[in-house]
Amino acid sequence: MTEEAIIFVVIGSVAAMLILGGMVIGAAMIIRPRVLLRQRMNQIGVIGDGGGGTTERADGRRQRRIQEKVKQLEHRGAKKSPLDVTRSDIMQAGLDVSVATYFVISTGVGVLGAFAYLLTGLQPLGAIAALLIGGLLVPKLVLKSMAKSRQAKFTASFADAIDLIVRGIRSGLPINECFNIVAREYDPPLGEEFRLLVEGQNLGMTLDDLMARGIERLPTAEYKFFAIVTQIQRQTGGNLADTLSNLSTVLRERKKMRDKAQAMASEAKASAMIIGSLPFAVAGLLSVVNPEYLMLLFTETTGNILLAIGAFWMTLGSLVMRKMIHFKV
């Protein structure tokens, strides 16, 4: 077997490993325990235990309504084309740019990455990987990071905002005015979302549609709980203040549990950071002690292949460790 055939076989094996690893990680990210939503709705108090025949029938009707709302949310998120997914990612990141502008910027980043790779003098075949990573992966990761930061900022003060709504309802204010108070008192994205709710209702839009759009912008579990509780209470009646008060308590307890899980996983995170930085630290020391020994990985074709395989397994191992130490609460 010639050297070119060996190279193609190794590249094909690396590509197959990348595809397999992507499928495994994608499957792990898609499969979510949906039963958690019903458990938390039970804690909120929307689903009760029932104390009699009439109460049980009312609870059954309310539970069916909740299940319908959950199915609507899942159905709304399932029917999305790749273009809609990109548009949704831009919306969640809080950016006011079009999809066409995003693709232009992504193409520019990919071209710059490939050009920078070619300037290093390495194998030209790697420029294709640099183009794909810079054009597809890097902009996607930036959007995900911005969306995660925005959602964390929204969730940080959401329980306090619900308490403000509860106090307003108990003092006799209509819920729309309570939303308006939250919109004035809190900074974006929390205040902005409630401002959009108020403006949409003033324009004649229904609260269901407004909250569905809000969930598309901020698909957090806390916002989904709030949307379902508010919509069910408007349809079935009952004491909205008490229900929202229970929701606020659940959100605070959820935050405490999340902080506790992060504190318990801090040692594992430190270990993962140390293990992940060891190859780079060793490579830096070798570049100082014996540069010729290390440069074979960059100047020889076999060394480039070994670097690609090592980078793949390091990335896969880092993602697995990240999945193990990040708990979904």
> What structural category arises from helix and sheet content?
mainly alpha
Count of extended strands: 0
Shape-level CATH architecture of the domain at 156-250: Up-down Bundle
Q: Oligomeric state of the chains?
A: single chain
Average per-residue pLDDT, rounded, comes to 79
In the CATH scheme, the class of the domain at 156-250 would be Mainly Alpha
Helix content: over 70%
Distance between the termini: 53 Å
Q: Give me the strand/helix succession.
A: HHHHHHHHHHHHHHH
CATH topology of the domain at 156-250: Receptor-associated Protein
Which regions have little confidence, pLDDT < 50, spanning 5+ residues? 44-52
Strand content: under 5%
**Biggest sheet record:** none
Shape: elongated
Radius of gyration: 25 Å
H/I helix tally: 15
Could you explain how this protein is built, in words?
The chain is mainly α. Among the domains are: 80-155, no CATH class; 156-250, Receptor-associated Protein. It is built from 15 helices and no strands. The protein has helices at residues 3-30, 35-44, 53-78, 82-92, 99-119, 126-156, 158-170, 175-185, 190-202, 207-217, 221-236, 240-264, 266-289, 291-299, 301-325. The radius of gyration is 25 Å and the shape is elongated.
